[in-house]
């Protein structure tokens, strides 16, 4: 469910960036054309092996652009908007809700915990996997936090309490148009690769389970070779086509039902982050270290998990 929910969130985020791009470049497109293009894109991605998109380069590009545009707008405004003490005309309940939503958004910004164990399981190196991943995770978290923190801070300083959930959406109709379009394109390419990465894990698990359950089914196990002119032969499987198509259509359909951006990310971030990044590591550590119940260390760890 964590991977499925992340796929839905990625589609929502991608759709926002594509909508900004289409609204500026192709305002005459109908609603059907704007919806049909993303669905076709996701279907193609689901059936290929590797998109070849470099998520690191794409993420670095649009984060740098968002940070630079936010800084430039603050300089252009000659003032820092927003209020770090209190949001004007907001009740205590609304402030509590917005703070909680922000924490959920921050949690969603670190979805690597969902696939951390999967990546670690595939490593083949001389050093132990836990040591390799510990160093890699620390570097990745530091770089990610640096860019996201600066993007968030300068975005709020630029737009104040009117800061959009997607910071690039706030610059959507400001110069330079080409730079904003490029940043939105980087987001789309990044999330296309990310959607494929999370979804392929689901595809492999489900398809392997069905193949083991129905070993004599031709629909499940037979491969058929398709020859497309000017392209190498491609093998297809009926189960793979049906299941992956249904998966993409369902995630896209659910994403279209949600009219909000940040609340959805906040909920998904909380649901994904806490069990995988807090609960399970604490429980595994307690078992590994043989920490007894109601000891001081046990109480501290359980309090940490609860908070």
Topology:
Elements: H1 2-25, H2 31-47, H3 55-77, H4 92-108, H5 112-122, H6 129-159, H7 167-170, H8 177-213, H9 218-221, E1 224-226, E2 234-236, H10 238-257, H11 262-288, H12 296-306
Antiparallel strand pairs: 1-2
Helix pairs in contact: 1-8, 1-10, 1-11, 2-8, 2-10, 3-6, 3-8, 4-11, 11-12
Main attributes?
single chain, 307 residues, mainly alpha, two-stranded antiparallel ribbon, 12 helices, 2 strands, globular
Any overview of this molecule?
The protein is built from twelve helices and two strands. It has 307 residues and is an all-alpha fold. The chain has a two-stranded antiparallel ribbon with strand order 1-2. Helix 1 (2-25) runs antiparallel to helix 8 (177-213), helix 2 (31-47) crosses helix 8 and helix 11 runs antiparallel to helix 12 (296-306). The radius of gyration is 22 Å and the shape is globular.
């Amino acid at each position: 469910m964590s991977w499925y929910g992340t796929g839905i969130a990625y589609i929502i985020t991608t759709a926002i960036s594509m909508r900004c791009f289409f609204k500026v470049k192709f305002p005459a497109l109908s609603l059907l054309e704007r919806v049909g293009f993303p669905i076709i894109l996701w279907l193609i991605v689901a059936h290929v092996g590797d998109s070849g998109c470099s998520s690191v380069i794409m993420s670095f590009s649009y984060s740098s652009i968002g940070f630079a545009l936010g800084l430039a707008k603050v300089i252009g405004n000659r003032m820092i908007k927003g209020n770090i003490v209190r949001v004007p005309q907001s009740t205590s309940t609304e402030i509590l809700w917005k703070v909680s939503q922000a924490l959920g958004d921050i949690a969603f910004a670190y979805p690597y915990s969902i696939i951390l164990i999967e990546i670690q399981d595939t490593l083949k190196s001389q050093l132990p996997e836990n040591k390799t991943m510990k160093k890699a995770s620390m570097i990745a978290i530091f770089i990610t936090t640096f860019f996201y923190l600066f993007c968030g801070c300068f975005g709020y300083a630029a737009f104040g309490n009117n800061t959009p959930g997607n910071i690039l959406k706030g610059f959507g109709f400001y110069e330079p148009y080409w730079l904003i379009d490029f940043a939105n394109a980087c987001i789309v390419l990044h999330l296309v690769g990310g959607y494929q990465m999370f979804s392929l894990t689901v595809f492999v698990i489900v398809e392997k389970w069905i193949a083991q359950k129905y070993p004599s089914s031709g629909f499940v196990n037979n491969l058929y070779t398709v020859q497309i002119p000017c392209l190498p032969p491609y093998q297809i499987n009926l189960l793979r086509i049906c299941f992956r198509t249904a998966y993409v259509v369902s995630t896209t359909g659910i994403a279209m039902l949600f009219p909000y951006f940040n609340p959805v990310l906040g909920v998904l971030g909380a649901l994904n982050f806490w069990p995988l990044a807090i609960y399970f590591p604490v429980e595994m550590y307690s078992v590994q270290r043989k920490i007894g119940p109601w000891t001081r260390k046990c109480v501290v760890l359980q309090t940490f998990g609860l908070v």
